[in-house]
C-alpha cells in the first residue's frame, strides 16, 4: 500500500519569524473554542511558536489567516479523528466550508486600489497520475474558489515546482517568488494545496515623514540602539489592558478603516515576555471593547521584518497529532490510504513605514509519497519591544501577528 504524506508550507510576506530563549516555559498552549472577535487560533499559534523557539532571535511574525486557510483545506480533505483534531484546533470556525468561503469572499471584496489592496487566492495542484475523488475535488474548488491544475510531479518534479511558485508569485505581486525551494517537490508528490494572501494599504492618517527622527530603542538585552521613530498626533482608539500587566494598546486604521493594525506596548514596569505569557484571545477582545477614541501622541518605529518558521511542533502542541502520523485519515480527497502531514512551514515579510504597510502570505499543503483609565491626551511611545497584529475588521481575520524587539534587523 502506498503511503502518502501531506507537506504544508506557509509562506507569508508580511512579517519576520524569530526565536525565543529556550529557558522560557515550553509547556504547550492549547487551542480552545472560537471566540467572537480575535480568534483563539491566532493567539495560540503565536504563543506556541514563541514557546518552542530555541534561540534569542529578535522579531517574530506569522499569518494566522494563511495558516487557517491551509488547515481548512486539509480539514475538508480529512475524516475521522484527523478531522476532529483539526476542527478543535481551528476552534470550529472553519468546519463549515460555506462559512470559510464567505470569509474569503469578505477578504476578496472588490476595493478601489486607491483605497487599499487585500486579496487571497487558493490553488489545487495534483499529479496527473493520482486518483482524486472528483466530487470532493469539485467541492473544494467551488467552496474555496480554487484554481485547479494538473501537473506531472512524477516525471517533471522541478518543472512542477516552478509552476506552483509562479502561481504564488503572481498572487503575491512578486513578493514571494520561491515558496517551494529546489528539491522540495519530488517524484513522490501527489497533491499541493496553496493559499496566497497579499495586503497593501496606506494609513488613514499617514505619519509625517519630516517628523521621523532617530531615537533610542531599548532591546531585550537592555541595551539601546538608534531607530527611525515615526510620530503623529491623532484621534484613535486607545486603551490599557489590566490583564496584560497594564500594557497599552492603540488601533491604527488604514484607509476606510476596513483593516487596522493594533500595537500592544508592555508597561515600562513589565516586559514583553510577561505580556506574552499572559496573552489570551479573551484579554485582547476585552481590550478592544474597552478602547475609546481619544487624542494620542503615537511614536512607532519604522520596521521591515522577514524570515521563516516550521509550524509542525506548534500545531502538535495545540492538538493536531493524528494528521502527522500513520493514523491520519485524508479520505475526504482520495479513497487511497496513507495520507499524512509531514511539514508545515511559514515564511514572512512585512514593511511598515510613514505611508502604510505592505505584506503578503502563501500557504501550501503538499501530499507526497513517503516513507488603567487614560488621561485626555495619551502618549504611546513604542521605544521598547512590542506586539502587533493586523486585523480585517469585517471578518475578524488576523492577517498578521507578531512582535518587534529590534526594528533594524
Q: What does this 3D model show about the protein?
A:
- Residues 43-407 form the Serpin domain.
- InterPro entries: Serpin_dom (IPR023796), Serpin_fam (IPR000215), Serpin_sf (IPR036186), Serpin_sf_1 (IPR042178), Serpin_sf_2 (IPR042185).
- It holds the Pfam family Serpin.
- By secondary structure, the chain is α+β, with helices and mostly antiparallel strands.
- It folds into 2 domains: 4-202 and 304-369, Antithrombin, subunit I, domain 2 (Antithrombin, Chain I, domain 2, 2-Layer Sandwich), CATH 3.30.497; 209-301 and 373-404, Roll (Alpha-1-antitrypsin, domain 1).
- The protein has helices spanning 40-52, 64-75, 80-90, 97-107, 134-143, 157-171, 272-278, 281-290, 312-318, and strands at 4-13, 60-62, 116-127, 146-151, 189-202, 213-218, 224-241, 247-253, 259-265, 292-301, 303-310, 341-352, 356-369, 377-381, 386-392, 397-404.
- Strands 2, 6, 7, 8, 9, 10, 14, 15 and 16 form a 9-stranded mixed β-sheet that branches.
- The protein starts with a strand and ends in a 5-residue tail after the last strand.
- The model is unreliable at 1-24, 31-35 and 370-374 (pLDDT under 50).
Amino acid at each position: 500500500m502506498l503511503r502518502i504524506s501531506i507537506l504544508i508550507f506557509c509562506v507569508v510576506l508580511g512579517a519576520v519569524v524569530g526565536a525565543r530563549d529556550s529557558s522560557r516555559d515550553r509547556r504547550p498552549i492549547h487551542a480552545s473554542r472560537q471566540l467572537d472577535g480575535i480568534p483563539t487560533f491566532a493567539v495560540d499559534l503565536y504563543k506556541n511558536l514563541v514557546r518552542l523557539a530555541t534561540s534569542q532571535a529578535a522579531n517574530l511574525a506569522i499569518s494566522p489567516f494563511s495558516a487557517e486557510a491551509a488547515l481548512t483545506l486539509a480539514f475538508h480533505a480529512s475524516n475521522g479523528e484527523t478531522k476532529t483534531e483539526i476542527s478543535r484546533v481551528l476552534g470550529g470556525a472553519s468546519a463549515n466550508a460555506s462559512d470559510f468561503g464567505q470569509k474569503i469572499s469578505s477578504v476578496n471584496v472588490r476595493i478601489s486600489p486607491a483605497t487599499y489592496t487585500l486579496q487571497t487566492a487558493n490553488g489545487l495542484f495534483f499529479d496527473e497520475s493520482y486518483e482524486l475523488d472528483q466530487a470532493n475535488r469539485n467541492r473544494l474548488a467551488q467552496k474555496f474558489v480554487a484554481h485547479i491544475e494538473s501537473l506531472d510531479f512524477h516525471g517533471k518534479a522541478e518543472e512542477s515546482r516552478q509552476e506552483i511558485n509562479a502561481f504564488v508569485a503572481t498572487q503575491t505581486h512578486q513578493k514571494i517568488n520561491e515558496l517551494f525551494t529546489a528539491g522540495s517537490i519530488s517524484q513522490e508528490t501527489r497533491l499541493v494545496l496553496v493559499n496566497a494572501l497579499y495586503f497593501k494599504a496606506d494609513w488613514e492618517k499617514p505619519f509625517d515623514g519630516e517628523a521621523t527622527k532617530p531615537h533610542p530603542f531599548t532591546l531585550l538585552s537592555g541595551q539601546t540602539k538608534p531607530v527611525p521613530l515615526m510620530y503623529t498626533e491623532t484621534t484613535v482608539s486607545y486603551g490599557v489592558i489590566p490583564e496584560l500587566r497594564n500594557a497599552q494598546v492603540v488601533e491604527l486604521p488604514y484607509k476606510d478603516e476596513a483593516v487596522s493594525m493594533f500595537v500592544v506596548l508592555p508597561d515600562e514596569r513589565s516586559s514583553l515576555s510577561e505580556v506574552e505569557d499572559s496573552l489570551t484571545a479573551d484579554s485582547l477582545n476585552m481590550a478592544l471593547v474597552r478602547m475609546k477614541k481619544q487624542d494620542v501622541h503615537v511614536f512607532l518605529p519604522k520596521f521591515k521584518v522577514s524570515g521563516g518558521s516550521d509550524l509542525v511542533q506548534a500545531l502538535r502542541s495545540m492538538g493536531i497529532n493524528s494528521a502527522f502520523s500513520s493514523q491520519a485519515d485524508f479520505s475526504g480527497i482520495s479513497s487511497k490510504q496513507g495520507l499524512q502531514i509531514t511539514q508545515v512551514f511559514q515564511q514572512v515579510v512585512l514593511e511598515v513605514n510613514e505611508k502604510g504597510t505592505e505584506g503578503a502570505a502563501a500557504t501550501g499543503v503538499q501530499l507526497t509519497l513517503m516513507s488603567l483609565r487614560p488621561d485626555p491626551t495619551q502618549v504611546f511611545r513604542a521605544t521598547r519591544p512590542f506586539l502587533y497584529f493586523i486585523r480585517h475588521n469585517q471578518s475578524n481575520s488576523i492577517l498578521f501577528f507578531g512582535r518587534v524587539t529590534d526594528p533594524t534587523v
